[in-house]
Amino acid sequence: MSQKALIVWGGWDGHEPKLVGERFDAVLRKEGFEVEVSNSLDSFLDLEKLMGLDLIVPVWTMGEITKEQTEPVIEAVASGVGLAGCHGGMCDSFRNSVQWQFMTGGNWVAHPGGDGVEYRVEIKNSSSPLVEGISDFTVKSEQYYLHVDPAVEVLATTRFPEVTWFHSTNRKVDMPVVWTKRWGHGRVYYNSLGHHNDIFDGPEALELMRRGLLWAAEGRAIARKDGLTSDEFKSEKKMF
Q1: What is the pLDDT of residues 23-43, one digit of tens each?
Q2: Nearest Cα to 90, choosing from 175, 205, 193?
Q3: Inter-residue contact 216 to 53 (CB < 8 Å)
């Protein structure tokens, strides 16, 4: 039985969400996935449908999401459904939702210099198969400064500052570019590259994204096999 993915695109047009969604659609179909592509956040409302997926791929920047749209995604990922995305399409999706930010592992706060900054993506020494055989590489794009969950596993970084601004008086910092984390039984993958679709014309950026999509989706089969659900994580205590 083929794996199932849902790609939901929209929000700010400057990030070319339709094109990025189509790019990820092509990657997943090549890997044998059955893919549904939607441009409505109401696609998140049907919990039963989400629970039947292996992977959710948000490609939505600077939008607003309701509690009713957020909570089924929170629940589905906690049960083992994978979540994977890039750039503002996943970690600047909904500035009004701390739930979304907690689940994804971070949120954009700045990109000093705007588009066209040349910077190095440095692969971290790791046993993770997600970066095996991939060398450091240079891109010319937006360099994302993010506020990041300390729980994430960082797989690639970039050095700040490249552009002089108010943050430059701080020490140099290595900002995560690629990370993974867990949300309940779900696997979460993020890659801050992707300001425009053409960043994935680069082989390293595309391969990192391909591996991340597949890795996130694999967690669902493991959860199903082991009979895992989100029930063990539920609590009556106030969380948000």
Answers
A1: 999 999 999 999 999 999 999
A2: 193
A3: no
Q: Where are the domains of the chain?
A: 4-106+179-233
pTM value surpassing 0.85: yes
CB contact set of 225 (below 8 Å; sequence gap of 6+): none
Closest CA to 174 of 198, 201, 148, 151: 148
Sign of CA dihedral 221, 132, 33, 50: positive
> CATH class for domain 4-106+179-233?
alpha beta
Give the SS3 label for residue 165.
coil
pLDDT in tens, 74-117: 999 999 999 999 999 999 999 999 999 999 999 999 999 999 99
Residue found under tokens 């090549």: 30
